[in-house]
Amino acid sequence: MMLICPLCASLGTAPFHRDVRRDYQRCGRCALVFVPPAQRLGPAAERAVYDQHENSPDDPGYRRFLSRLFDPLSARLAPGVRGLDFGAGPGPTLSVMFEEAGHPTAIYDPFYAPDASVLERRYAFITATEVVEHLFAPGEQLARLVDRLEPGGWLGLMTKRVTSPEAFAGWHYILDPTHVCFFSEATFAWFARRHDLRVQFPADDVVLLQRG
């Protein structure tokens, strides 16, 4: 069956991996690896997985984890600029860290903070930590975030990256049933070219994209 890439809408996708749980396709244009739509969880089952998360700004370990994105992004921001944490989850923490650093930060999450009015504003930076791998329509959703950036603004993403078919086959990241899209450096490079962004990779699971 022909499957359309959810990032670039190409029909040039091919089987990449298969296990007892799911199938995985890879796009020949943008290199996104994705799960077929028919194998995604429904909203109730997806929410049930997220409800098990116990993230909190009071957890030093979680703050250290988020610092992988916070540190390189905050170093690039002018004092006092405003941001948005997209997909903040049930325990918003990165937004708290930016607020503490003097950056007013709105939050949005389709399950836990669904005030879509924040998506109508413009921001100097937008973050999405451990979010893009959950998106059903990453092409549309990420393009909308880029559109919400001010000129020179930053989109900071945290997600683990595909490296090789061999590594993918034994990768713990694909065991989470809510993970349906898997990006590589090549995927982010394609996305940056498509949207006229500058791309940087400050860590193995962090990418910074700057709007021109």
UniProtKB/TrEMBL annotation:
<dbReference type="Pfam" id="PF13489">
    <property type="entry name" value="Methyltransf_23"/>
</dbReference>
<protein>
    <submittedName>
        <fullName>Class I SAM-dependent methyltransferase</fullName>
    </submittedName>
</protein>
<keyword id="KW-0489">Methyltransferase</keyword>
<keyword id="KW-0808">Transferase</keyword>
<dbReference type="GO" id="GO:0008168">
    <property type="term" value="F:methyltransferase activity"/>
</dbReference>
<dbReference type="InterPro" id="IPR029063">
    <property type="entry name" value="SAM-dependent_MTases_sf"/>
</dbReference>
<dbReference type="GO" id="GO:0032259">
    <property type="term" value="P:methylation"/>
</dbReference>
